[in-house]
Amino acid sequence: MEKNKAGHILVLRFSAMGDVALATPVIKSLAIAYPAWQISVATRPKFADFFRGLPNVHVIGVDLDKNYKGFGAIFQLFSDLKKTKPTLVVDIHDHLRTKLLRLLFSLVGIKTIVFEKGRGEKKKAVQPDHKLRGQLVHSVVRYQQAFEKAGFRFPIVKGPFLSVNDRAREELQVWLKNKNVSSSRWIGVAPFAAHVSKMWPLEKYDEVIAKLSESGQYHFFLFGGGKSETEKLKALEKKYSHVTSAAGELSLGCELALIEKLSLMLCGDSSNMHLASLSNVPVVSIWGGTHPHLGFGPWGQGDEAIVQIPVEELPCRPCSVYGTSKCLRGDFACLQNVSSDSVVTRTIQRIV
Predict the structure, then answer these.
(1) Which positions ≥6 away from 323 have C-beta within 8 Å?
(2) C-alpha dihedral, 182 to 183 to 185 to 191, nearest 10°
(3) pLDDT over 70 (residue 139)
């Protein structure tokens, strides 16, 4: 595609949080390589902070729970998106809703491109027997390849990819002052995920905090959301003077401002892992039923960022692409067998 040619690209990706965040390396790199092109990202309003500050990028907030609820609303959504006059629609979601939108745009003569999700190979990788082994294409690269199909060729630039505005930083400073946080090295702890098979037990995170606390070097910030998670993190906060829970207290923009100040993020296979890695913050990520080789590992970080039981020891891994609430063995050994000592050791190695 000629770089001096102008046009309007409409990008579709409504959820989930981590998958939307993983679009930022591609959108930022595309915007830099093709400055004459207008880029609109249609996503949920709460994810707008991911794309703030990117050149020639505009976020179209799509509230699917309020303004476009129900199957019939797809036509209203199409009508509203069509008003932005895109010359190209790139679907990096490939969900029923975006499939219908692609069809409608095609019917009015607007070119559409969809990314290759790799459903077939991912299914083979998690089947009970004779699993497909090896590294699959990362989601960031899959997104990039979708634009390449449309003629846009560009390298992925260096991070960080998540922009933090000054207002969020100011709000964070007020919050930190009220919390009386020390100037120790800061470690983020994000123990929760959407599925049980992706969550290392909370008591093991507690053990890690206790062991790392012996040196007196670290202050810990706890990340989570929702009533249940917030209550559990508040209880953990009360055990330690050097632990502060951010759950339910910060906006997404402020959370990003806090994450960029961390020395390390300790987490599972979760959106907070992606937010940290995309902010150029080292991570130690504990994996269970899923596997980073399926294309969802922390972008820009190597094997040293991952703690997991080798598949040679647990051939049932991975059992799911996105996570599950069930375990074929019934004991979640993939998580239970990860020792707190191994996580402490890796954390110290990564934070130095």
Answers:
(1) 193, 194, 195, 196, 197, 198, 269, 289, 290
(2) 40
(3) yes
Helices (H), 62-200: 73-82, 96-107, 119-126, 139-149, 166-179
277: pLDDT confidence band, cut at 50, 70 and 90?
very high
Q: How far apart are CA 297 and CA 285, in angstroms?
A: 9
From the centroid of its chain, how far is CA 42? 17
The answer to whether 221 and 242 are in contact (CB under 8 A) is no
Distance CA 320, CA 189 (A): 24
pTM over 0.90: yes
In the chain, the domains with their CATH numbers are 8-149 (3.40.50.2000), 166-351 (3.40.50.2000)
Task: Please give the torsion angle defined by the CA atoms of residues 305, 309, 313 and 315, in that order, rounded to the nearest 10 degrees.
Answer: -90
Grouping H, G, I as helix, E, B as strand and the rest as coil, residue 42 is strand
Output the CA angle 188-194-195, nearest 5 degrees: 115
Query: For 59-107, what is each residue's pLDDT tens digit?
Result: 999 999 999 998 889 999 999 999 999 999 999 999 999 999 999 999 9
Handedness of CA 104, 110, 111, 116 (dihedral sign): negative
Q: Which amino acid is at 89?
A: V
